[in-house]
Amino acid sequence: MNNIELISYVIVGLIPLIYFIIYIMTQLKRKKNKRNYLYGFIVAIVIALILFVIRLFIFTMSPLKKYIPTETSTTTSGDITTKEGDTTTKTTEKKSTTKKTTKATNDYNYDKILTPTGGEVVGKTPKGYEVKLVDGIYYVDGYLVANKTYDLPETYSPGKLNSTVNEAANKMFAAAKSEKGFNLYVASGFRSYSTQKSIYNRYVNNDGQKKADTYSARPGYSEHQTGLAFDVCDRNVGACITSGFDNTNQAKWLSENAYKYGFILRYVKGKDNETGYMYESWHFRYVGTELAEKLYNNGNWITMEDYFGLTSSYDSKPIGE
Questions:
Q1: The pLDDT of residue 53
Q2: Strand order in 229-234's β-sheet?
């Protein structure tokens, strides 16, 4: 339960209680034979029920639910605290005092995260990249892939964002703070299979499956489950994980600089036919600086699907099946 949900419950309980207390005080001023405590109690119950119905509508059916945070994952620059579920890790980074150059650094390599050993080679993509299946997870040229074609096992659960992803994010956020004064943070990081299932079903109930599939992954198909991707927001910008973030200076800076820290803009504008999802200016995936710089392509982002020759469709089968 996040802070907004907790506050909503407090309001639902507190307002009727305040009303009842005021009502009792009013009755005490009357003569004993004219006091009626039961009426006040009933009215308080009715107020509580009305507030509860309003809360239920906002958090489950209203379009406003899209703007209510559903994750407990947060990361900030400077002293970084990241929390996913019951696991909390803290990393302290010194703020950068110099601007980054346009060339990607070599501080981060994908090998620090995952270079799978073993498994079975199931084929090659049309562009010649090797596809390997390791413990039910697909890797293309050594990179973990999760999209509408390549799913993850329900049991796969890193439990939190990968530590190298956290380290790279901290560096990136510190640079954004130093260069532009931005206050970037991870608004939505790791999500378990069950969490994604709950989120996806809520969107389907609200918008229908066809529309929900354009902006939300079905359970088992979300990059958030890998612990390698997250959604970014800024504490000084009202729009968070919405299209309102698209034209902000923060979104522009991230698009132009994320590759330096090993991140790619995962769902590129105008390329939903490749990724399977609408443009998301806030969603970034860690792949390491070598691949990130290639996909950045001097500002003309290439998708992982295009680069490796992959499909992303619920109607398509993974290579090897």
A1: 78
A2: 184-188, 229-234, 283-286, 263-265
